[in-house]
């Protein structure tokens, strides 16, 4: 079946701004829905090994759900995904202060990050599949970050059910950038219980340990012999209890991917044994945040389903949290005249 893309109304913000929803059709009955508010992936219907379709991302039925306080379901995060210690960083000798919105730190771009803005949308079809181009210009000084930043995110849903996300950006002053998508996945279907039985493989021999406020200590530590070893298939639940007493209450860590040369490479593979549904994540990024929805508490989502703690996992491809304050981490500065360019693919092989 040829891929296609259609648009419908998804409501209005309190100030009257219209929000649209785009439906991208893939192969074998698969579809992906994205709204212009936050660039949020609201639905991802993909087949299992027998061709049975399920919606594998957490979210809400209507815009009101996304506007209520909620933990970044499906959203684009920026300008700087994950944390910056105490919201402070120095660039070219100048110190910048961001809003503190997570304990003592800045998280996911601030009070009104890219997850809460309405993106300009252009739909199209490439030879690969249905494509949605989202654009947003972040003003110089917005949320405390320097430089006018022009961001483009292209979501492509292919006939093979790859959800490909291409991120590009340019700036007029030196700034920092780290963009990701914050989808919460449950491959048995959103709202179908915890994800402890999901088998995970991460192509990461190292991770970045954190302090009590989830800021990396700066150490790059081997996963071998720790609960963080997912170098071969292991269920998410196998070692998670060892982390319950920690401030993060489960997995909420950045893994240092083995591929550090900015080429698109396999980052993770997740298998849900009952449905046989598989998701592979490929990325050009050097890191990925594994978050097991530790801070999620009973939330009513799509079709009245209740989403519980540990009811999903996120694989947020990224540069490492607080990179701007760690000279041993891959750099996150963007200068005028250069282009930020990253790609991540969520693949659902049958
Ligand atoms: C990221 C963070 C988590 C949490 C979620 C959103 O994964 O690392 O600590 O803040 O986002 O709830």
What does this structure look like?
There is one protein chain. By secondary structure, this protein is mainly beta. Helix content is 1%, strand content 41%. The chain is built from one helix and 29 strands. The strands form eight sheets. Strands 11-12-13-14-29-23-22-17-20 form a nine-stranded antiparallel β-sheet, with no helix packed on it. A five-stranded antiparallel β-sheet has the order 1-2-3-4-5, with no helix packed on it. A hairpin with a 5-residue loop joins strand 2 and strand 3. The longest helix is centred in the first third of the chain and has 5 residues. It is globular. The structure holds alpha-D-galactopyranose. Alpha-D-galactopyranose binds next to strand 24 and strand 27.
How far the N terminus sits from the C terminus, by CA atoms, comes to 16 Å
Low-confidence stretches: none
Number of strands: 29
How many DSSP H or I helices? 1
Helical amount:
under 10%
Strand order of the largest sheet: 11-12-13-14-29-23-22-17-20
| Series of H and E elements | EEEEEHEEEEEEEEEEEEEEEEEEEEEEEE
Q: Let me know the average pLDDT.
A: 97
Q: Which structural class fits the helix and strand makeup?
A: mainly beta
Work out the strand percent. 35-45%
The 3D shape can be described as globular
Give the biggest sheet: 9 strands, antiparallel
- Radius of gyration, in angstroms, nearest whole number: 19 Å
